[in-house]
Specification:
Immunoglobulin-like, 16 helices, 27 strands, globular
Length: about 550
């Protein structure tokens, strides 16, 4: 019989290549004639000898085009009819038993003349030596897998190794190349299915943390892709700010209504720990300092050293977006307060925000030390000590033994049900030992956070809890990671390991259900059902931090 197969790789930033093969597995020769058929969403045209193209893809990207090029030695003459094309070799040939016949083609999506020319050269290079390109791609992937999986034993890959490999594949699947002024460096979108039109800062810092484990260069590029846009909008309130989102062509444009929680220094620390690239650290450190100071200049309404989430206008939706938790119950009754033109704060101070800022101060101190600036390192450590004292007193409810947001004012009420924002003081090391011990009781309570899939974003016994309610009950893997790493930090390694085992075993697409199912935004805490966008990048990144060999480096960096 005749067996067909195909393989695809990337041979450039915007050029993919494919190999299509026919193998004669029978006992007699077969006459075969290679050909290709395809269709596009827009009308096609003949482009050049052995190629077809689609242009007029979007009025927002008038020079963008897709070009399909066929291996010149095939001698195919593509025919175009509207949105369809067909390309076949001029003559048939005999395929002997056990013989394999392969044909190659490339597909390039480019935005401007310089990219068009680069793609043409990449295709020519591939057609000259296709096997070399396939071998190089194989070696790259083998390197990725060695770094995230480690050694595979005689019994085959373990569940954790399979999850780690799938996580690396997910991040690479979401990888997008630089795209002119809109995106100066490569980066990963959150999801190819749900959020493919841009990169978000909240996601980018997490992606970089995961990417650093197997591709520190791409991780650094992910960080740069966001920091390139720092302060691009005019106005005093945007100096030092990092936008919420950077739009990709054709949906270019940055989202300046809000930023996202400050985990940039954390990401840079993990990237530098892997790459040892001091030039990268020197490049981004001033930007990290500007971003850190921005929070205290524009998001501290009462100037007490504790910050609030906010927005550029009187907009509670954008404030929620800034928190990263779009519909969190803690913001159900939040109002906005004006700080200055284009700078507003919520009327509550958020515990996770200030825990992240505490971690930023400690991380900036560490990074300054790596750069040889002992004075700056000491100053950031002193600031961290002050913030630790303030936050422990301000956000911990002694009666309930948990961390909460607080309304502004010396006697402001604690806000909201128990939520995942209370995990952050343990992850960052802000909590005292007695505070961590009391939070641990809630984390291990099956009625609250120790559900079948551990660590929902709202306690399961809270009135506001909804297992499929986005940020009102599902398990988000970044927050689950914060809980696990927090337990480990305070010496509860057995509790942490048990939670990780249950999470990996019980969530669909991990250890339950179809193992090929893609990672999603979040998971049902009682059933493990996958929920939200598929192929979700930060889920993959945090699964790598939980499973990949050597990912313990994060805890060492945090100190």
């Amino acid at each position: 019989g005749l067996r067909a197969s195909s393989e695809r790789i990337f041979v450039g930033r915007r050029t993919a290549a494919a190999r299509a093969c026919l193998a004669n597995e029978g006992r007699a020769p077969l006459a075969v004639r290679l050909g290709f058929e395809g269709a596009a969403a827009v009308p096609l045209r003949r482009h050049a000898k052995g190629a077809v193209a689609a242009a007029d893809l979007s009025p927002k990207a008038p020079d963008a085009q897709v070009v399909v090029r066929f291996q010149p030695s095939l001698g195919v003459q593509p025919q175009v009819a509207g949105r369809q094309y067909a390309a076949a070799a001029a003559e048939a040939r005999d395929l002997r038993p056990s013989e394999r016949l392969c044909a190659h083609y490339t597909v390039a999506f480019t935005l401007n003349a310089s990219e068009h020319e680069a793609a043409r050269r990449e295709s020519e290079s591939f057609f000259r030596a296709p096997e070399e390109h396939f071998l190089a791609s194989q070696e790259r992937w083998e390197g990725y897998l060695r770094r995230v999986v480690g050694e595979v034993g005689p019994a085959g890959a373990s569940l954790r190794q399979r999850i780690a490999a799938k996580a690396a594949c997910t991040l690479v699947l979401n990888w997008r190349s630089a795209a002119g002024a809109a995106l100066l460096h490569d980066g990963c979108t959150p999801s190819i299915t749900g959020f493919s039109n841009g990169i978000w800062s909240w996601d980018s810092w997490k992606h970089a943390a995961g990417l650093a484990i197997f591709d520190p260069g791409l991780a650094a590029s992910q960080v740069r892709a966001m920091l390139d846009h720092q302060g691009r909008r005019s106005g005093a309130a945007f100096v030092g700010m990092v936008p919420d989102k950077v739009g990709l062509p054709p949906d270019v444009g940055d989202a300046w209504g809000n930023t996202k929680p400050p985990l940039a220094a954390w990401a840079v620390s993990l990237v530098h720990a892997r790459s040892k690239d001091d030039a990268f650290l020197r490049e981004v450190f001033p930007k990290l300092e500007m971003y850190h100071r921005w929070w205290y200049r524009w998001r501290d309404h009462d100037r007490n050293g504790l910050c609030e989430f906010g927005s550029a206008g009187n907009n509670t939706l954008e404030m929620r977006w800034e928190s990263g938790m779009d519909n969190a119950a803690r913001f159900d009754n939040t109002s906005m307060l004006r700080n200055a033109d284009q700078a507003w704060s919520a009327d509550q101070e958020s515990v996770d925000l200030n825990a992240f800022l505490f971690l930023e101060k400690r991380t900036l101190a560490d990074l300054a030390g790596r750069l040889g600036d002992a004075s700056a390192a000491a100053a950031y450590e002193a600031e961290a000590d002050d913030l630790r004292r303030l936050a422990r007193e301000r956000f911990f409810d002694e009666r309930r033994g948990y961390f909460f947001d607080r309304r502004l004012g010396a006697d402001g009420d604690f806000v909201g049900p128990m939520g995942c924002e209370g995990f952050a003081p343990l992850w960052t090391g802000l909590a005292s030992e007695p505070q961590a011990a009391r939070v641990r009781r809630h984390l291990l309570d099956p009625a609250k956070f120790r559900t079948r899939v551990p660590f929902p974003c709202v306690a399961a016994d809270a009135p506001q809890f909804s297992a499929s309610g986005y940020w009102r009950g599902p398990v988000w893997l970044d927050q689950a990671y914060f809980a696990v790493a927090g337990l480990r930090r305070y010496g509860y390694a057995g509790d942490a390991e048990g939670a990780v085992s249950d999470l990996l075993r019980s969530a669909e697409g991990l250890g339950a259900g179809d193992p090929a199912a893609p990672f999603t935004e979040n998971y049902h805490p009682h059933t493990g059902r996958r929920q939200g966008a598929e192929w979700f990048g930060w889920s993959a990144a945090h699964l790598l931090l939980l499973t990949a060999p050597g990912s313990e480096h994060e805890r060492r960096v945090q100190g």
